[in-house]
Amino acid sequence: MKVFITGGTGFVGTFLTKKLVEKDHEVTILTRKIREGVQLPKGSSLFEGNPTEPGPWQERLSEHEVVINLAGAPIFTRWKKKMKKEIYNSRILTTNHIVDALANRKGRDTHLLSTSAVGFYGFHSDEVLTENDQSGTDFLAQVTSSWESAALKAREQNVRVVLCRFGIVLGRHGGALAQLTSIFKNYLGSTLGSGDQWFSWVHEQDLAHIFLFLLENTSIEGPVNCTSPNPVRNSELTKTLGEVMHKAILFPSVPGFVLRLMLGEFAQTLLKGQRVISQKLQDSGYQFQFPALKEALEDLLVASQ
Question: pLDDT, tens digit, for every residue of 85-96?
Answer without folding.
Answer: 999 999 999 999
